[in-house]
């Protein structure tokens, strides 16, 4: 299934008609450059074009009052003076004779996107719209927004398709207070937003945008705010919050639909956000949400005011929605102190509502919400500083790297008598192994693993790895007689200097992994039921689940809170996923793991499985081919000891691995 793209140039046909410094950044070119970048890059041709439509009155009334709608209906017939007068009653927004029409198209586009995804016409999609929506409220326009496109879409999805749980992720740099107000007492809609806050000194300067607004009444716990109290947040900060706040809750919530308030003013160069995260971060943020809700993801444009980073960020998002390999994110140094404080506050505010946050630490000593609010004087000085000096147009950042699709997506190395799963390309060619290597293999194993066809298997295995690292093949599945032996060979004989770092994810435990290297060339994360006595090296991280890998709650917690942050910081060139026989890992969890690991090493994942486990080849192939993993159904409360142990493990490791930090 494909990716929907909604765009209608009619939505470029309104603009600011008078002088208003607060609104001058919201220009038609925002939409034009975004769409043109998709066309120029060939991405629009790969999408399924879905026409925009006007939202009907009843659809708009799902969120807004009749009074407000009737008032907006009059704006097309207003004189310039009337429009100015009408605008005065709202904040940081402007009206135009054509904005009502465009606002209906923006909301209608979001609904068209929901229809396309919910009817299975497409897997996911993006609506490029203006005016944005997440600031508009029941009875008021605000922050360039007229109708709350995403809030209307959420209500519409519930009403028309009986969707039980909707996750709204708002990665725009402003707090979508309109969305928060709409659903704060509604446990069927989980709203997550991070936003520039600076201790309430940043627009819209609301006390209720802080982390302690967790929702009300039955909605308590279903509103998550992560305030950024400094500018200059980077990729590490964003990924840390996803791994340690959003994803654990999102997986526990188990949504049927994911809506994204896709604002790109959180990208570097944006004059509003003044952040430093690069456009390729949105490739990863999108990817990390794509295994929720069976892949049903609708992204709707909100903000984004630097035309260069906006266009790049939109392209990064669409390319991921299309399933292209992800770019590697280099030198993630871990979250800054301010970000850690924010995520620690958000986690502690929600630990009573979410069992996946149960073991979160107490809030930091310096309770950031009451930290002295800068005096108006200081604030005045800052704004007096010429806009140019503080402006971010001067920022430069590298073009996002090309994300090339290898000619072959998934290859397999199987015994001749094992049928190749659909969609995989059997690798039969194999270069002859150097005699030295063959003899090494032979004398390393006295097992039959390396008899005649055993050597063939290994030579094909090495051939496959060669093809992965040169991007001829994206990922692969290998069935071997002895998976532990094979793993050892791969790890020790990885001669290719194209592979500087290998992340080995070992599911289940059969025997001691006694080839732990300390040079950092290999990072082994082992998830199993057995406790490992002591911490051998920074590069061998055993995670123990008391009830074993069949405990999906414990497993997904270890993946989200430990494996993902480690993987991002380690930034491997190859991921080796080893399924030990008898691990007991549940199929949907196995597919989720493969899906999430695709975020590393440009998707170069090599799955090693034992021949006697060939029954799970089908689901492995499906995940390797990029099909969304099935939702993790009815997750139990994680084992307290495991949750606690994971927290302790993170605290012990965070000195070496900065991305594991969750406490200041
Ligand atoms: N410096 C201009 C102040 C703009 N304040 C409103 C921002 C609305 C963003 C919508 S994503
Ligand atoms: Zn914004």
UniProtKB/TrEMBL annotation:
One Pfam family, short name: Hist_deacetyl
The protein's name in its UniProt record: Histone deacetylase domain-containing protein
PANTHER family linked: HISTONE DEACETYLASE HDAC1-RELATED, POLYAMINE DEACETYLASE HDAC10
Record InterPro entries: HDACs, His_deacetylse_dom, His_deacetylse_dom_sf, Ureohydrolase_dom_sf
All copies of domain Histone deacetylase, residue ranges: 26-320
